[in-house]
Write a structure and sequence with these properties.
The protein is about 20% helix and about 25% strand. It contains four helices and eight strands. One of its GO terms (molecular function) is ATP binding.
Length: about 150
Amino acid sequence: IPRVRFVEAGLALSYYQDNSKPASKVTSARACFLLEEVIDGRDEDFVKYIHNMDPNPLLDPDESGYDFALFLAFTQHVQYAKTGGLVFISDYQGNDKLLTDPQIMTHPSVSEQKDMFGGGNIEKAVSEFETRHICNHFCKWPGFELEEFGGEVA
């Protein structure tokens, strides 16, 4: 079982203080920055495992990292099943220890037609998950009792 997590992230706000009035304590946000933990390694170590348009690995079976990508596809299957077909995480990228920039994929009923999770939330991906996801050997692990979706087992 891979030991992987998402990078730690936070927001940093830069404020401008109005010094035109001596007793003024009024400040306003000047800039906002998203800070993320650095993923160490070479550029070639950074891999896009699963795109947000497809719930299956982008890698070919003979490529390094394919089995890890299968595991990530399995995690999507678990998320989809445990949320009653409403949500899963996609756009897995990074390395085999740290992932970054995920996309939350939601069924249209979750956001009530509002853009809650940005342009990368492709609601069609959730609606078509059961026909597009191809189960793999992880999906067959006992205890999860996952319904088999898609075509042949990868």
